[in-house]
Amino acid sequence: MATDNSLEGRTILVTGARRGLGRALVEEALDRGATHVYAATRTPFDHPDARVTLLRLDVADPRSIERSAAQVPELDLLINNAAIGMYDDLTDRGMLEHHLEVNVLGPLTLTNALLHALRARSGTVVNLGSIAALANLPIMPSYSISKAALLSLSQAQRGLLARHGVRVHAVLAGPIDTDMTRELAIPKTAPSLVASAVYDGLERGDDEIFPDPASQHFEEAWNNGPLKAFERANAAFLAPAEYAAPRG
Q1: In the chain, which residue ranges form alpha helices assigned H by DSSP?
Q2: Is the pLDDT of residue 3 over 50?
Q3: 0.90 cut: is pTM over it?
Q4: Which tens digits make up the pLDDT trace of 77-86?
Q5: What domains can be seen in the chain, in order of their start residue?
Q6: Are 127 and 107 in contact (CB under 8 A)?
Q7: Fewer beta carbons within 10 Å, N or C terminal of the chain?
Q8: CA-CA distance, 233 to 230, in Å (whole number)?
């Protein structure tokens, strides 16, 4: 993306784009002047804007990821939004494995599949996470564990992909008014407001983006606290030439 991190004239891919926050991210990108938006989803839907290309994508299926990535020759911004969140009690190992497959391995596999396209444009990756990564929500423990893993993945990618000219941001969102939180009797933020705040955070260059009132409560302490300093210190273990590859 451009040095000002604006969306004007950019090519973007959003996963989980059919509804909720994913759909809001698509619409906001169009409003901000994106030239081309890949709307990736398992279930097709119609979109009236000619700038939108629909992609059939199941982030839990590596073959689906490979097929979809082959249709994206260039990319400025990848938003890993697709996720699952179910109630459980950790008695079913398969439930935790499924959350990790969709919420962690899916974004990892898709990012790797699109890395050449992102490197060619000095692009950006955004991983949509949750404040449940910071403190487990015990009515949705598998979801919380997967989002904690996604935050750690984002920190690792930030250090490793920087050497390829690719920036990585993590969104730590509070409750959003979507199907996932329908049963929770708590304050929720509209997807359109969260989408706008995500892009605002990108324009500022925030490593972690806190896009709603619930998450913003943690923002100052996170940015100025010992954990962020610890992340930066750990990143220094990467030798300057290590993992580097020629720009393509």
Answers
A1: 20-31, 62-69, 93-100, 106-113, 115-120, 141-162, 191-204, 213-216, 219-224, 226-235
A2: no
A3: yes
A4: 999 999 999 9
A5: 11-235 (3.40.50.720)
A6: yes
A7: C
A8: 5
